[in-house]
Amino acid sequence: MSFNSENIIEEYIVKETDTLVDIASKLDLPILELRLINGLYNNDIYVGQRLKVYPKKTYIVKPNDSLFSIGKKFGVAEDKLKHINNIDEGKLYEGKRLVISDPIVKYTVKQHDDIEKIAQTFKILVEELIEYNGINDYQIFTGQELYIKMPSTVNNPSFFHVLVNKSFTLPQYYVPEKLTVPNVSFPFEYFHEKKLMREDGARALECLFKKANEDGIDLYALSGYRSYSRQKFIFESGVKEEGFEITNRLSAKPGNSEHQTGLAMDVTCPQIKYSLDQSFENTKEGHWIKENAHKFGFILRYLKGKEHITGYQYEPWHIRYVGKETAISIKNLGLTFEEYLGIE
Ligand SMILES: [Zn+2]
User: Fold this and answer.
1) Neighbours of ion ligand 1 (CB under 5 A)
2) Distance 222 CA to ligand 1 centre (A)
3) In a domain, 250, yes or no
4) With contact defined as beta carbons under 8 Å apart, do 328 and 318 qualify?
5) Where is each LysM domain found (predicted)?
6) Are residues 255 and 302 in the same domain?
């Protein structure tokens, strides 16, 4: 198991007097879970050992928040928030820490179960099941307890500020309304779904390209909307070629791509041969995007040095439409979208 596996993005380094029991209680995790995540067969640990820790997505209640407003913000159903936090509306108070993402589900293997079947039931990948539970050679046994991280499916996918990342998933059948081809330059002529964007994003992108053009910036749009099924194909091809870990770091699982919102666009320029490469940052087009995108309502979604928050490598080419006012605040605060929304 390696450090970059999905969702296990934090670690705890064992100190001199630590016991596994202490650590589990400190981290508020069941000891069995801690052992499973780290592939430990008993409670033995050693000083300096790096333990993987499952991060909890939480949100601190602010004045005037309601379960409804918080649910809307994160695309989580009000009922689900209530349920996973074990609360009644009346008990919501300022400063309370709410868990936003779903809890981990424990599943006991039944006779005739196999890994593929379980993965299918929970709509997760076999690789995830294996990684998370430290399974060898696809071997599971009746009575075995498996931990399953259920993806949080957003219930308001068309919400303008919807957060889509490795923890928050768009529904499989979500297709944005009013997809349209923005009137901007593409490095290819033919029609392809990746030319599409949501109406509001498309109009804003046209303004951005127009100004760039006036400033002598040679910008091209490469990839916008991506359907669930195309993302699925891309991810599965990646896993076949590069393996799960590398693919997961560079690309999104189906439902976890912001491109499915129709509000994202990857941009490039001739100097880097229309590729999506970090060297875009050093082109005059990359500079211009970094300095001007917010004025048109776009944010750079995957910032340098914020990989541990966004879950993705630095992508100077990926812009997301959030509206002018929000984009300007985010840019001025130097935050990721996750931080801006208050996910901790
Ligand atoms: Zn992108």
Assistant:
1) 266, 318
2) 9
3) yes
4) no
5) 10-53, 57-100, 105-148
6) yes
